[in-house]
Amino acid sequence: MAFAPATALADLPDAAPVRVEVDGVPVCLVRTGDAVRAVHDVCSHQRWSLADGEIVDGAVECSLHGSTFDLDTGRPRTLPAVTPVPTYAVRVTDGRVEVDVAGPTNGAAVPAH
Ligand code: FES
Questions:
Q1: 8, 27, 42, 90: least CB-packed within 10 angstroms?
Q2: What average pLDDT does this structure show over 52-65?
Q3: Which ligand 1 atom is at minimum distance from the Cα of 44?
Q4: pTM, to two decimals
């Protein structure tokens, strides 16, 4: 585990994806109340930023072709994407959001970015 600073919790709107870079890795953060989840911010279909999309039923919807990705597992719920996106561990300490991008929690391969 190697948590690195991502942003302040106060800078994350509720249920709206936000793109940050953590140690040079693009990450899509989604806040729900005081909980924050993180997935790799590159769609596994055609490399679009997931943070450009919306949150639909606990998943982030890619704004390019509409695949939705479960925020807990990274798995696509809808086509055209068929490959999971990496998910990352997040912790919130004293209002600071930190993400561990060293190893995806779901074992998904990290695409080049
Ligand atoms: S680029 Fe995301 S669904 Fe096509």
A1: 8
A2: 97
A3: 2
A4: 0.96
